[in-house]
Amino acid sequence: MAKIGAESLEPSRAFHAGEPIAPIDNGKGSPWIAGQLRQAILDGMYKFGEKLPAERQLAEVYGASRTTVRLALDQLETEKLLARRVGSGTFVSYRAAAETASIAEITSPLELIEVRLAIEPYMTRLAVLNATSRDLEKLDEACRYAEGAGSDPAKFTDWDTAFHVRIAEAAHNPLMLWLYQQVSEIRTHTQWSAMRDKILTNERITEYNHQHRALYAAIRSRDVEGAMAMVTSHLHYARRQLMGAEGA
Question: Which end of the chain is more exposed for a tag (fewer CB within 10 A), N or C?
Answer without folding.
Answer: C
